[in-house]
Amino acid sequence: MDRLFYIGVSAALFAAFAFSLNFVVPFIIGDYSTFDFALIRHVVSALVGPCILFSEKGVMRHLTLRNCLHAIWLAFVGYVGYFLTVTGAALFAGPVIAPAFLGLVPIVLMVIGNQGQASLPWRSLMVPLALVLVGLVLVNGTAFTAEGLDSVQSLWIGVPLALAAVGLWVWFALSNQAALAARPDMPSGVWSALILVGGGVLMLAFYPIGAAMDLFRLPILGFGWSAAGNLYVWGTTLALLATVGGVWAWNIASRSLPVALAAQLIVSETAFGVIGGLFVHARWPTPIEVAGVVVLIAGVVLSVRIFYDRQFASGKTVLANE
């Protein structure tokens, strides 16, 4: 049981790191838009999906119409829908305020997850929850300053889109975990592959609509390697690491850990994102950012310790698929 716990924790932390790579996307795609990047990323991920599917034995018994439709629906909610709302929030509310609101995701997940599974008494979660909240406030402390508000076009549109993104990701996390629990005999790799293929199909279906709305720059700047080579390289790299690796790791964590603990671990995405952003901007963190990251990490470590002591070490494990 200890091994299962540590595998779940490691998978959740890797998923957080993989998802945090999204924060560096605007700095590596040049003149292309985030929609161009998403198209390349999801199509590459969809091409990897069949390779994963048919590397598993007896995969055909899992490829039912019900499973495929459910995976496509989850891909729409957690990937395409989430991407569109996050992008819209960043466009209207700016690149600082939108991520600040997305910091609510692990908090909402932890509260809802613990309410549903009763993994731990609420009093045991108060200290790590408080640390995570304080850490998020410190890390996002510049969001509502004059400097952070410079790029805001419309809070009335951007903030609702950011809140919609929070709702979609929470919905996806809970629905995905319930889907895995209802399919105990399905390998995590197969389910991940179905979601990856679903996301790629949906992005291809969205392309004509997005192109008509001038959301894609590929038709203007060109599809050739000389023009779009950087986009293809980074899109493929993050598709393999962030999308394929992140989805697979999150599914393993969802099977191995209670929702409340997985939610606490995913908050480390913010810490990874801050570190990545500092690296891209080639600057040292401010004292407030250092304090925020340290407090966030302290909250995550304390959460792991509490869950291990109360649930796993006592032999009273509440797994995600129970």
TrEMBL record:
Keyword Zinc in record: no
Keyword Chloroplast on entry: no
Entries under InterPro entries matching the protein: EmrE-like
Bilayer-crossing regions: 7-29, 35-55, 67-84, 90-113, 125-143, 155-174, 186-211, 231-250, 257-282, 288-308
Entry keyword set: Membrane, Plasmid, Transmembrane, Transmembrane helix
Protein name per Swiss-Prot or TrEMBL: Transmembrane protein
